[in-house]
């Protein structure tokens, strides 16, 4: 019974870590897209002056 509880806790821990890594990857992708979009609009606005 203790082994089952231990394996369950281990699965929850690794599952949570996997979700954290996946969400971190998507957050980095979104941040990169926002940086590129702000750089493009910034250069477009600077040219207009």
Number of helices: 1
Averaged pLDDT: 89
Query: How is the main sheet built?
Result: none
How much of the residues is beta strand, in percent?
under 5%
Multimerization state:
single chain
Could you tell me the number of beta strands? Answer: 0
Given the C-alpha coordinates, what overall shape results? rod-shaped
Fraction of residues in H or I helices: over 70%
Mind sketching the topology for me?
Elements: H1 2-48
Q: What structural keywords apply?
A:
49 residues; mainly alpha; 1 helix; rod-shaped
Describe what you observe in this structure.
It is a single chain. This protein has 49 residues and is mostly helical. The chain has a domain at 20-49. 96% of the residues lie in helices and 0% in strands. It has 1 helix and no strands. It has one helix at 2-48. It is rod-shaped and about 70 Å long. The mean pLDDT is 89.
How do you describe this structure in short?
This protein has one helix at residues 2-48.
